[in-house]
Request: fold
Amino acid sequence: MDTQNPSAPTRAQSRIAGKNHSHAGGLVHDNTRHTTRFTVIGNHLAQHPELSGLAIGLAVYIQSLPAGARADIKTLAERFPEGTTRIAAALRELEAHGYLRRERQRTPAGRIVTRTISCNQPGRHAQNHPAPAPTRKKRTPAPRKPLPAVPKPAYPAPTLLQTATDLLADLRRHDPRLLLSVSDTAHLAPGVAAWLERDITPTALRHALTTDLPPEPLCRPAALLAHRLTTQLPPPPPFRAPAPPSPVRHPLTNCDGCDRAFRSPVPGRCRDCRSDLLEAA
Reply:
């Protein structure tokens, strides 16, 4: 971390004489002693034979940061031009060689956060905190907590459930953390169908399920989706009385008696000709 040298002189010394010049080829050091704002880095890191240059540079930068500073992938990508993919790979290198640890902790408010621990001497943590000896007794894994219940549609038509299943399977394209198993998808599909049944468009439903997700890794994405499907379920659409049927317009036909055009479902005589026949009878 940011290590100050307590034995440093009160004022900067001049450049070290006698050791900064050489008549032979190769590297020549032109050094000035630091008295403030410096970090001590071991050669085991600076000259590590397996770490990439980006990993070594990130380790030096992280060790120079004060306690409490953010050192997550997003923050480092805003500081350096390499991008999140290369920075994430370099951090994995540092973890593999013991220069970095990332631990998940729960805050008093119940939120899960990731704490980054920078190690300037890999292996020292293991020496100070030796791992307990393994026991032969096998631990029975705790049963998985069932998913919360979800709303049910009034009319679970097969077509509606298939549309809901397709929508859930497509969520991983919007956020890779929302990759669902077959059983989780089958559990959530009725809840999605209940939304679609209430005249909610797939786009609006997808937005409700994928917006404002927590930045941390999702341990059980299906449980989060079940919670949102239940707590954010919109009300049914307002009732609208069916429109009255439009009046029937019969086709035009010519009267068999007077040849006048009139509307009738079948050919025959017009009203006047029918009246004349009744009077004549």
